[in-house]
Amino acid sequence: MEQIHYRWAALGVGVIGNELARAQQAMGGNLYSVGNRTHAKAVAFAETYGIGKVYDKPEDIFADPAVDIVYISTPHNTHMQYILPALAAGKHVLCEKAITLNSDELDRAAACAKEHHVVLAEAMTLYHMPLYKELTSRIRSGKLGPLRMIQMNFGSYKEYDMTNRFFNRHLAGGALLDIGVYALSFVRWFMTSTPDQILSQVKYAPSGVDEQAGILLQNKEGEMATVTLSLHAKQPKRGLLVFDKGYIEIYDYPRGMTAVLTDTATGRTQQITEGRTDQALCYEVADMEKAVSGHGSMHLDYTTDVMAMMTRMRRDWHMTYPEEE
Ligand SMILES: NC(=O)c1ccc[n+]([C@@H]2O[C@H](COP(=O)([O-])OP(=O)(O)OC[C@H]3O[C@@H](n4cnc5c(N)ncnc54)[C@H](OP(=O)(O)O)[C@@H]3O)[C@@H](O)[C@H]2O)c1
Fold first, then answer.
1. How is 255-297 classified by DSSP, letter by letter?
2. How far is the centre of ligand 1, averaged over its atoms, from the C-alpha of 14 (Å)?
């Protein structure tokens, strides 16, 4: 496994913040420092993982010259208030999905990263899973023929609590930004170019955020995708790629390690296993460090395309967040 070479500061200490701390330790390293809205939780987090430095407030991270990379894991609508000052202070930023609320925000953040010569990336695990890299090389070999269609599902059953971040408009809740971002990132990873035709249907939760959506996509190469999302009905996290000569199924795709390839002429199946689901964040951290050292990509180009799709769909739905009004 790759080692940690840079000094990372965690901004946020929730579920995924804890996972990232564990990933760094599994890589034989550790977070350098931590800052959080509720200071006492940052202190407890630092004690749990043996992290040497706790800031009084999250913003103090940006003034610390020792910090190389800031990992932001707060709710979607708080990302911009941290991304911009972090980049402006010359820090590289890995920010949880969805990286911003809309394309305008992402464009501003990307321009700021460019101006300050630092890496800006969304923590989209599937871009870093070895399985995806292996599937891409098999697809590029041409043996399966051209890609025709993609089917994507992502549904989780969240209790109807309109105050939690999944349904809360004031925490940029909704299926699209929370889970649709995975499905659309999967689509973008495999499609030759970003879809230019987008049709969608939405059903709202009582809080006014998107609870359920059906999406149809097509790009200029004629590759098509269907995506179904729900926050209040479980679906298998299943991805299906359909080619002229076969199809590939991937289960639990955000951190997928196994796919099944079916040859349509013979009906023969082949299981492809690459990487490990439980090391998903380690791959992401390693790729971020490579990008920071100038030797890799975090695929902000795909993130930009996915954000454009989500922004366009919410515009079609006339759905806005308070920050956008
Ligand atoms: N990539 C993945 O697999 C994955 C998985 C889960 C979540 N996520 C993403 O990660 C982010 C956090 O999710 P989570 O499940 O870790 O959430 P969580 O457990 O609720 O933790 C949220 C963190 O954000 C802080 N926070 C909440 N509201 C804030 C505000 N208004 N201003 C500043 N800080 C605030 C909290 O601080 P306090 O301690 O003060 O409350 C806490 O540290 C979301 O963007 C989510 O989409 C990604």
1. G--EEEEEETTT--EEEEE-S-GGGHHHHHHHHHHHHHTTS--
2. 5
pLDDT digit string, tens, across residues 119-160:
999 999 999 999 999 999 999 999 999 999 999 999 999 999
- How large is the average pLDDT for residues 111-118? 98
For residues 175 and 251, give the distance between their C-alpha atoms in angstroms, rounded to a whole number: 19
Architecture of domain 8-126: 3-Layer(aba) Sandwich (3.40)
Percentage of residues of the chain with pLDDT beyond 70: 100
Q: pLDDT above 90 covers what percent of the chain?
A: 98
Q: Which residue has a Cα nearest atom 20 of ligand 1? A: 14
State if residue 41 touches ligand 1 by the CB under 6 angstroms criterion: yes
C-beta of 76 in contact with ligand 1 (< 6 A): yes
Domain ranges of the chain: 8-126, 128-282+305-324
Q: Tell me the CA–centroid distance for residue 203 and ligand 1, in Å.
A: 25
Fold of 128-282+305-324: Dihydrodipicolinate Reductase; domain 2 (3.30.360)
Smallest CA separation from ligand 1 atom 44, residue: 75
Q: How far is the CA of 283 from the centre of ligand 1 (A)?
A: 21
